Amino acid sequence: MSTTFHRGRRLRRTAGLRALAQETRLDPAQLVAPLFVRSGRQQHEPIASMPGQARLSPDLAAREAAALADLGVGSVLLFGIPDGKDAQGTSAWDPDGPVPAAIRRIKQEAPALTVWADVCLCEYTDHGHCGVLAGGEVVNDATLPLLARAAVAYAEAGADVIAPSDMMDGRVGVIRAALDAAGAADTVIVSYAAKYASAFYGPFRDAAGSTPRQGDRRAYQMDPPNVREAVREALADVAEGADMIMVKPGLPYLDVIRAVRERVDVPVAAYQVSGEFAMLHAAADRGWLDLPRAMRETCVALRRAGADLVITYFARDLATALATEAHGATTGVAR
Fold first, then answer.
1. Omega within 30 of 0 (cis) for the link into 225
2. CB 306 within 8 A of CB 258
3. Mind listing the pLDDT tens digit for each residue in 38-75?
4. How far does Cα 114 stand from its chain's mean position?
5. 85 noted as active-site residue
6. Three-class DSSP category at 80
7. CB 7: neighbour CB atoms within 10 A?
8. Catalytic choice (248, 281, 303, 316)
9. pTM confidence score
10. Is residue 195 among the annotated active site residues?
């Protein structure tokens, strides 16, 4: 038999050879773990649609953040669940609200961990939209100073990263100016530059209580068929001062991640959203797939598409698996 054909299997024959030839790698430092924060103490409310996730009071959020840091996870991303809501979402910038309180506690218990604070009004408004309403429509420019107030409150509490997810036009520039004026010029902005009006947000809205009471968000979140528009949004946000940009959701938009990665020079994050997380859990519960393998494979796919960072509810489990694998490699234990 001729031996002139390509023998690609040589580099796949053993775990060691596969590791040598691996093109895309995962590291816990590349992971961002979302946390839902509510007020109170010793509060742990499991989220039925998101297995293993819970609404945590600031003290327990800080404990979880410290555990994540011990596993090497690079960052946490905080979402607030306030005690009260109103038409303007004023509790979003309450300095004693759940997010500022959690930021302060996390910085005490895990000072080296990078803390992100999501900036949006949807969790804080009584109508569930991401901005203020007039005549039933979200008013872009009237929303911008409110987002800036929230961003400054989180930065003053100690957030390293501000992550506006509202999809209002011009918000990156307004937030940057507000942070600079408040003496927070070093605070990073990660913009949800390409956030699509997706069917995959259901479990998150259940967790955060942020489902709109009427209408939907298609007038300000992106239309799923569009990819060139995502590139325009990313470039615009970088021009306004974004230090990093994000594509959300992740797996249904791998092509968007790649397109954006090829056009911007700043880091790119991909958000593996609640619906992706819940979908994999549901399939695994039915015995239809191997959850640990699917968890890793999907996060590798996001990295392979071009994401420098992956925001995922699998962060703790994935970091644990990576740590176990690394320990096995250094001790000679078979993987």
1. no
2. yes
3. 999 999 999 999 999 999 999 999 999 999 999 999 99
4. 13
5. no
6. strand
7. 9
8. 248
9. 0.94
10. yes
